[in-house]
């Protein structure tokens, strides 16, 4: 199967142009830090969702490129802030912005990107768009705080975990998907379908990301294996392992969660694999991916909606 994002390659190039045009500033350090993290690439799935759904709905408004850039700015701002909070040193295979430039520039440039995103929203002059994106950024902030509160809590269950990732990660996917039908003037039913697709895809994406933290390699992932556990994040693979692990194995996992001690990382990976935790987590991601595909099947049938069907399926094969 070809890459489902190929169909929007021209649109994504236009989004990159908008990003370059709107990164204007008289403060060199702001531009340097912002360009450093944006140029690192990544899958750009959030803006891609907006563009794919716009195509599926036959919407050609030029505002789609502006809002796709807005979504990428918001996402980039959250990455800058996340890496400072998590004390991360590696992202997408290279030093994080906070590692290279320091914490203060990273936080402040994140603030710049948030404020620039809101300036661009105003240009679109649509209160519904403003509502969706302002609500999303608020929920994302709540998710960040909730994750902080849950740090090093070995009693965290799957429902609490899902609440965090649906706020922290899936909410921007949902907002991106919702913006397309708003721009297209679609009815409430279509908007709800698109929002469901975005939330489900974003949830599946994050679950797979958490699986890869224990299954991949630093070279493949572009980050250090076991970083989540080191930072005290209790993700679905750990939650699944704790359900069926022996008493001794649970003690090892709880110690790692509560103390961030990864001295016995090899043993931890063995416990996770032995208890089928990665497969259990992938099954949860598959349920979300199926939910996204079910929503996509309700959209108009064309090449763009076909690409929307391919995305969740391809996500389940993700290895980096």
UniProtKB/TrEMBL annotation:
Keyword line: Magnesium, Metal-binding, Transferase
Catalyzed reaction equations: 5 isopentenyl diphosphate + (2E,6E)-farnesyl diphosphate = all-trans-octaprenyl diphosphate + 5 diphosphate
GO biological process: isoprenoid biosynthetic process
Entry EC no(s): 2.5.1.90
Needed cofactors: Mg(2+)
Keyword Transmembrane on entry: no
Gene Ontology MF annotations: all-trans-octaprenyl-diphosphate synthase activity; metal ion binding
Metal-binding listed as a keyword: yes
PROSITE patterns according to UniProt: POLYPRENYL_SYNTHASE_1, POLYPRENYL_SYNTHASE_2
EC main group: transferase
Similarity comment: Belongs to the FPP/GGPP synthase family.
Function according to Swiss-Prot or TrEMBL: Supplies octaprenyl diphosphate, the precursor for the side chain of the isoprenoid quinones ubiquinone and menaquinone.
Protein name: Octaprenyl diphosphate synthase
